[in-house]
Every structure is written in C-alpha cells, then in structure tokens.
Amino acid sequence: MAEILKHAVPKADVTAALGQVRETVAGVIADIRERGDVAVRTYSEKFDKWSPDSFRLSEEEVEKIVASVPQQVIDDIRFVQEQVRTFARHQLDSLREFEVETLPGVRLGQKHIPVQAAGAYIPGGRYPLTASAHMTIVTAKVAGVPRVVASTPPIHGEIPAATVAAMHLAGADEIWLLGGVQAVAAMAVGTDSMQPVNLIAGPGNAYVAEAKRQLFGEIGIDLFAGPTEILVLADEHADPFVCAVDLLSQAEHGPDSPAVLITTSREIAEQTIAEVERILPGMPTRDYAGPAWRDHGQVHVVDSIDELYELADEFAFEHVEVLTAQPRLALERMTQYGALFLGEGTCVSFGDKVIGTNHVLPTRGAARYTGGLWVGKYLKTVTYQEVTDTDSQAMLGRLCGRASRVELFEGHARSGDVRAAKAAGDELPWNTA
C-alpha cells in the first residue's frame, strides 16, 4: 500500500482556476472572429506589448535575424533537427499504404494524405523554446504538409532570434511574431492578413491549451495539453540526487507543473525530498520551480515494483523516467504514459531538447487514450473502394439491399438493388414510376 510523504494541492483548486481561463479565452476568440486583425493587434499590444507594422516576418527580416544568431547555435539547431527528422522519417516508413482484392474484382485501399495547412505554435512567453519548432515544423514537413504557418510571441518586446532561426531552418513557410490565444485563434479562424490552417500543433500555457480545446472540431489539434508533467520511478538503487535534479528540471517549466516521485524505498524518498530542498534555492528558475514543487510535487512510497508500476499507470503522466535496476521492465508493465525514459543514462531533458523523439506529449491523464505528436498526426488516413467484377457487384448489391432493409434504410437498399440489376439483370423490388 502506498504511503504519501508529500501531497499536491487539492484538485478542486486547480479546476477552479481553469474556469476563469475558459471564460477569458472564449471572449478573445469571439472578438477575433468578429474584428479579425484589429482584435489580434489589440490583444498583442495588451498581452505582449507588441504591435509591429506586420506580425509576419518577411524573407529579408528572417534572413537578417538568422544571420544574427551565433554559428554554434545554428549548428546545434541543425543537429537536433536532423535527429527529429530522422525519427519522423522512420515513423513515416512504418505507415503502409495498400490495396487488396478481397473478392473477385473488389479492391479496397488505404492511403495517407497530409493536411494541406498546419499551424505550429512555439511558446516563448518565459523562455525561447526553440525545441518546439523542431517538434512541430520538422515533423509536419516530413509528413508532406505543403504550408506550415509558425507563430511565436516576442519575449519582453524582443524578437527571439534563436527561435526564428529554428523555425526557418525547420522549413516554416510563414513565420509570425504573435503569441497566445490571439495567435491560435488567428491561425484557426483566419483574418484578412492570415489564411486559416487545418490543424494546429504545439505546446503552450493554459490559455493556449484552452484556445486549442475550444477550437477543436473547427480545426484539428495535436492533443489537449496542460502543464508539463514528470513522474520519476525509483527503486533502492536510484541516486536521490539524480531524482531531485530531474524532478526540478521539469518543475521549472511553470508554477503549475507536477513533479512526482514513486519509489519502493522510503530512504530514497526522504533523501530526494532533502536534495530538492537543498538544490531549489540556488536555481535561477526557482520562481517557477519552487511553486511547482510546493503545490504540485508529490512523493509516494510503495511496497513493491509491481505496485510501483500499477500506481504509475494510474497517473498516466506525460514523461515517465525509470531509475530502477531493470528499467526496460517498464516497457512490459506500463500502458499509460506519453514517453518513457529508461535508465539513469537517459533523462526527460534529452527528449525535450536533443534526442529526436517528439516532446509534444499528452498531459492531464490524456495518455489513457492518446500518444504524443508524431508524423501520423499530420496525415489523414483515407480509404477507397472499387468494384469491377459483375458477379461481385450483383452479390454485394443483393446483400446491401437485405442488410439496409433490416435497418429500415430503404434509400440505401435501393442503391444496392440498382447495382444488382445493372450487373445481373435482377428485377427491382420497388416501383420506379
């Protein structure tokens, strides 16, 4: 039975805060629908203190910004994007188009068609998150999306040059310096200056996530995203210092980011808590990591490895780091997670920044029903059918007539009847006059 050494704030407190977010987002979206670019500019001025002549960067502006970025940063961006591109290509290769003949002259097929326009939201209110450009834009381009609109906010009124470079090198067709709900809404509904997209992907704060949620259906989205989550699983062999460092590595994303430890060792649990309290005051990002650990950090002690994995699946967290003697056992035992990071040599930060797997992952329990962003998200898997054999056409027509009339769908039945009549001369069982 699990013992909880550290609790998070009650869930009701989090739910109440989300209610205000929903109301604010709904108002912004409605205003942008009505006033378009004028409303977009109003909210950009209000939230980001940003109101240039054009929110979209020209090719000349992009080239100038990219040229200002240190060569080492450019080289690193290129390297990481190649890791993301390679993994996405392997994902694409795993998707098979096919055509099969299931009956004589009956051909059924499947093909994959990329969405024609995708929006990539790259957050930047607190930090220049260049890695999100790799994950959203590179993956879309590997999928074959012809138009990728990328948008990121200015940071304290300044252009985030490294992020713009990452967007450009990733292959974005349009780069906009626009953030928050106004960016998501503009991409979704369109304005005089921005043509709408079909799907929006990318992480963001609670307002961005809520905007995507409210617009879903009108457009596609990658997934419903919330604050970054980390779940560290540790046995008695784990290093509590590593546990603490890695918990705080994700807590710094924001004051509402859950960081949870589940361990089979009370000693590891207590030492990890002590290490967190020791490290935290000296972190440059303690203003975010501190409240996240205080309000959303948890530590659970369980009796066995079996119980550890059972509890981990109940959390269904975005990132699960496995610091045990046999980390690959998690591949067999766990079914509900966004991404696994196996062994001390791996860390969530690798996945966030450099290793090549996608860091846009399900949060708030969404791992129960979906994985994260991948190349297939930008593809529509569609089917086609063709019947050329007259015997098959007649047989299917008769079957369709019988099956449809069981369901009282006379119109469907008549479509089948006509095929049987055309192919085999069957008499129509209804009056055509």
UniProtKB/TrEMBL annotation:
Cofactor: Zn(2+)
Protein family per UniProt: Belongs to the histidinol dehydrogenase family.
Pathway participation: Amino-acid biosynthesis; L-histidine biosynthesis; L-histidine from 5-phospho-alpha-D-ribose 1-diphosphate: step 9/9
Keywords from the named record: Amino-acid biosynthesis, Histidine biosynthesis, Metal-binding, NAD, Oxidoreductase, Zinc
Keyword set includes NAD: yes
PANTHER family: HISTIDINOL DEHYDROGENASE, HISTIDINOL DEHYDROGENASE HDH
The keyword Zinc is annotated on this UniProt entry: yes
Family annotation (InterPro entries): Ald_DH/histidinol_DH (IPR016161), Histidinol_DH_CS (IPR001692), Histidinol_DH_monofunct (IPR022695), Hstdl_DH (IPR012131)
Name of the molecule in the record: Histidinol dehydrogenase
